[in-house]
Write a structure and sequence with these properties.
The protein is mainly β. It has two domains: 3-32 and 53-83 and 238-286, Sandwich (Jelly Rolls); 87-235, Jelly Rolls (Sandwich), CATH 2.60.120. 2% of the residues lie in helices and 44% in strands. The strands form three sheets. Strands 2, 4, 7, 9, 12, 14, 16 and 19 form an eight-stranded antiparallel sheet that branches. Strands 5, 6, 8, 10, 11, 13 and 15 form a seven-stranded antiparallel sheet that branches. A hairpin with a 4-residue loop joins strand 5 (88-94) and strand 6 (99-102).
């Protein structure tokens, strides 16, 4: 039996509900479901099967979807999943050392402005996201905006996992983090892209102690002079369906798909321009 989603979404992706259940289109199971019975190795076959094959907690599959743009603009939009918190880490980046200091606890709680995103008066410091899988979206609820003009740039770990590659302009659906001569504002700040093919997992990368993770680093190349930006909460996820240049009133849809995310625990939709009339319809199941 399919679960049905039919809503109007008035935020771009997560609004300011990162690490809160609000605005999620659907939530997956918070526990494993039993799979096929398996015999215990080297033991007598029990009279009652022992279920040792469990689905990943929260694994979900989208079976159909339809998104409509009601924003009166040409936009990007898509549908996908929020990744489980146990699949990623986040922390502060000190460029001069260089060094990564894990601060995942503050990234994943909802205490106001407790995750630093940069250093006031010091260029090139920033933050790092380390993920077990490639992701398509990063949503940050900024609690404290920076003061005075600043500039930022992002980069990702290269194919060998030994260095950094600057994020290319191609493949970006929405970038509210990087730019020149602007500020980071409060509320949701999004980075949505199609991950490049040469994004590799860290092997030996100076300053990063996250071997086996895909690394993403956003730095303030020109730091604010006084107040630095800080985040209240962060989430990341995947958008297996992501379409750019959808006209006003346009839709994207598929009535017969099986889009599975083994590491997802919720379904989300993305509209690069928020509007209270943007529509989401979908069916989904717990995946196995």
């Amino acid at each position: 039996m399919y679960n049905v989603i039919r809503v109007l979404q008035d935020v771009k992706l997560r609004g300011t509900d990162q690490q809160v259940n609000n605005e999620l289109l659907a939530r997956g199971a918070q526990y494993g479901l039993p799979g096929h019975p398996q015999q215990l190795s080297g033991a007598t076959v029990p009279s009652i099967p022992v279920y040792t094959d469990f689905y990943p907690r929260g694994a979900m599959a989208i079976k159909s979807y339809s998104l409509q743009n009601r924003s009166a603009s040409i936009i990007s939009m898509g549908i996908g999943f929020k990744l489980r918190n146990d699949q990623w880490k986040a922390g502060f980046w000190t460029d001069a050392t260089p060094a990564y200091a894990d601060d995942s606890y503050d990234a994943k709680d909802t205490d106001t402005s407790d995750f630093p995103m940069e250093t006031a008066g010091t260029n090139n410091d920033g933050f790092v996201i380390l993920s077990s899988v490639k992701w398509d979206w990063l949503s940050i609820n900024v609690g404290t905006a920076n003061v005075a003009s600043s500039s930022r740039a992002c980069r990702y770990s290269n194919a060998a996992g030994t260095g950094w590659v600057d994020v290319p302009s191609a493949g970006i659906s929405l970038d509210e983090l990087t730019g020149s001569g602007d500020t980071i504002t409060t509320g949701e700040n999004l980075f949505v892209w199609t991950p490049p093919q040469d994004w590799g997992k860290v092997t030996v990368l100076s300053g990063i102690t996250g071997d086996g993770y895909y690394a993403f680093n956003c730095r303030s190349t020109l730091a604010p002079a006084t107040t630095a930006a800080s985040a209240t909460a962060i989430e990341i996820g995947t958008l297996p369906i992501l379409v750019d240049s959808v006209g006003s009133g346009g839709t994207i849809s598929d009535a017969g798909v099986h889009i599975w995310e083994p590491y997802g625990d919720a379904i989300v939709a993305f509209f690069s321009v928020a509007n209270a009339g943007n529509r989401v319809s979908a069916t989904w199941v717990h995946a196995g």
